[in-house]
Amino acid sequence: MENNRPVIVAVGRTKFGEHYGKKPEKLIEEAWLAASNECNLERKELDTCYMSDYFLPVTNKLGLEEGFLSELTELHVPMEVTRSFSAALKTACHAIEAGVYSTALVGGIEKMTDRWDKIRDDLMLLEDPWSYYAGGTPEANHELLLREYIKKHGIAGEDLERLYCALAQVAVKNHANGAKNPYAQFQRKISLDTVLGPRKAANRSLGLFDYAPISDGATALILTNESVAKKLGVTPVYIYGYGSATDYLNYTARSELNHFVAGQLAMQGALNDSGLNVWDIRLWEIYDQSTMMEMVSLEDLGYCTAGSAWKSIDESYPHDKGCYVVDGKELYVNMNGGLKADGNPLGAAGGAQIYELFCQLTGKAEQRQVSLNGAAPKYGGMLEFEGFGTKAYVNILGRD
Amino acid sequence: MSSEPIERRVSYLGDRLRAIRCKTCGKEYFETRDYCGDCGRESYGKMDNIDLFYEKGTLECCVLIDEPTNKFRKLDRFIYGIVSFHNGKIRVPARITDQLLKDNFDPALLEGREVIPRFRRRCSVGKSDVVPTISLAFTFADQYYPYQEYKIIQPTQDYELPGIVGYGVYISRFRIKDGSIERAVPFIDEDSVTAAVEAGKLALIHSGLDSRLVGKIYVGSESNPYAVKPIAAKVAQVLQLGESDGDLQAVDAIDTEFACKAASGMFKDACALVSYPRSNVNYAMVIGSDNSQAAPRGCPGGELDAFVGYGGAAYLFGKKDVIAEVEVWYSCTSDTPDFWRRDGEHYPMHGGRFTGDPAYNKHVRNAASKMMEKSNMKPSDFAYFVPHQPNPTFPVRIAKDLGFKEEQFLPAIQMPKFGNTYSGASLVGLAAILDIAKPNDQILVTSYGSGAGSDAYILRVTNQIIEKRARQKVNIKFLAENPFTEFVDYSTYRRLKQGM
């Protein structure tokens, strides 16, 4: 009898950054080949493909992405497209659990630099049209989130300076991690002054180095059931818990503007699903489209109380230690450099988060490898968003 | 390429800031919807339409945008944030407009300030696209344009003759100063459509008239951003003139064009319409609004660049609670090419010295003197004379020629304060007089439109002008002496005038 528990058996990815000369299809091919090589699986063994891209139809005028995936794999199996990697993964998990398929390719792809000059208009129109109509920019929403946070928690004076500095430390830490990631878009360390300089020059609370870049890239993983995984003879990584939640498209219409309610709910769902406690998971890939998002997510995920994450960050000196220390406990966040340094190709970014967790859990993260009590971490979590906090997904991965 | 159906839906909601309130629990939503999210199916059909168009909001939170998205690039730098209404029941994204930000400052210092929605162009689009508009642009309630409540007041008094029941003048915050002349300059998101809506809004506030009772709207302009598409339809929709029937307004709306007399020429039509027993139109609105363009100085047509202003004026006509009865009128017309703009051309051409005697002087003199002759009146019978005012010298010369004294016509000459507002010019002059006139004063108004023609009207002020005057903070004196007025240099003026 088949054991239908979904297993991630292999992961693959491209370098993130600018791939000027490559078609989007070329990128997903690279990622898929890397994953299939790893588990020694032939394309004919795939029963289905799920792929995510946030807005290839807009950036590359490509509809019917399934079509080029079919050409690429020379397969005529069922294929579906979602907007985020987590959504593709969850759909594949459902299918495998239900026993409909036994082997699935889950891929993510985005090619944003092809539409360099119009990308901010596109992003803003897709993620929050009314704010766009009023003149809003993607960066303005992050800054408003920060303003709302500061006001909600009454942070002022020296504390406010510490908060701004804590946010800069998030970027410095992520760049330091990115420097150890051969696939990262930015593989160089930066200093606190690198972050603070552009902020000061623009007279803004968040500057160039607080934001994730726009990127091209693709990621892929192969999901099978436990029976197939055994035959492949790989180290199995399981999805221990999953949670997802949705909030309004228009940021200003939401009930709470100083954090992401959807992120909080997704985490609760994932904890319930997994039966784990918050601190059972000490390795996280957090969706840091801005340093502010990483900070506030530490609260939404339950590691810091509301209004306190900046203190924990500031007191941990993460750029020295490489991890946060909250209440004396170590918390490893964005070991691949996060979206900030690794890159942010929207539909593929979640795949890079899973890629990192897979490497960490299987002890293959090389110089980025986290060691907890002398061993590779048993659990790792990832938080992915679609839009500006509109959809949130939490996946908790683990080894038995 | 813009999508017309999307454009229609966004501006239908956004121009008026349409919102909705659940009758059961009181929850409010920006945008319209059929039921309340909290009360569910039970609330279906039990939602009240509200809007935020005449409301005052609070700027809760804001940041500076200095790298706008492409379609907002012409705004350069602006304050953007979250505005709340009704103690936070509704929050909307907001752009603060009418600000030329130069120095660095902390936007957080602006948080907590009261703001009012302003109807503006939304963003830049291609030359052949629909012009997008929205009222998610705000200005501070304690600055240039103050908050005024729109309070509907039931009329009490009937008049035998039709007349003006309310008026409003809109002039932008910015000015350019050339010698002794100050001219209004639109902000970059303003045009003749936005000025028409603002003027109409002020006229409704002044009259206290329920906008649903307005049966006809005329908008006169020579600077409509469209060759084909009426300004009046936008005004009717945004100001909700006539009864609303779904997303239709039960009102007749029409644009008129005759250079500077496009609006003043319709006063008599509005009066005739509200007097006709079977018209079923009790009130009619006439708006003159212009953002006239002029070629740069030194180019053909560039002589106009020294005079063009920006603004609009709206007048409501009816037979109840009249503040100035329209007693009689006289018009004359001839085919005189003193000023014209060919279709497709950006800037108008100008007949140079021949715009004086054979054009302006001839027609204004004829209309004013024939009017007096026919009604057996002489200049000394009038408290005030309002001439059309394309520049500072023409109106003074003609008024003196006709035998008026300075105290009769100087208060009406506002051109040196606002520039030539074209279709709005004689209407602004009349507003300056109505701001100060006493009951029973008689006023002679003579408009002029190139091309060419002139309309003369005799108005008699009623007692009710006094009580209504108290309702309008934004009068001509307020606009002319406003301490929040901002002066700009020539290159900024040209940039703002060019628009988004």
Structural features, described:
The complex is a heterodimer of chains A (400) and B (500). Chain A is α/β, with parallel strands linked by helices. Chain A has a domain at 6-117 and 214-232: Peroxisomal Thiolase, Chain A, domain 1 (3-Layer(aba) Sandwich), CATH 3.40.47. Chain A has 16 helices and eleven strands. In chain A, helix 8 (157-178) crosses helix 12 (291-300) and helix 8 packs across helix 13. Chain B is of the alpha+beta class and 500 residues long. Chain B has two domains: 4-17 and 52-140, no CATH class; 158-498, 3-Layer(aba) Sandwich (Peroxisomal Thiolase, Chain A, domain 1), CATH 3.40.47. Chain B is built from twelve helices and 24 strands. Chain B has helices at 4-14, 192-207, 231-238, 267-275, 356-374, 394-402, 406-409, 415-418, 425-434, 465-469, 476-480, 490-498, and strands at 18-22, 28-30, 47-51, 57-65, 78-85, 90-96, 114-121, 133-140, 158-170, 174-178, 181-185, 214-220, 244-245, 248-249, 252-256, 283-290, 311-320, 324-333, 339-340, 349-350, 384-387, 442-449, 453-461, 486-487. In chain B, the strands form six sheets. In chain B, strands 15-12-16-17-9-18-23-22-21 form a nine-stranded mixed sheet, sandwiched between helices. Chain B has a five-stranded mixed barrel with strand order 4-5-6-8-7. In chain B, a hairpin with a 2-residue loop joins strand 13 and strand 14. In chain B, helix 2 crosses helix 3 (231-238) and helix 5 (356-374) packs parallel to helix 6 (394-402). The A-B interface holds A 117-118, 120-121, 124, 128-137, 139-140, 143-144, 147-148, 151, 202-205, 250-253, 257 and B 10, 14, 29-30, 61-72, 75, 78, 80-82, 91-95, 104, 108, 111, 122-123, 132, 134, 136-137.
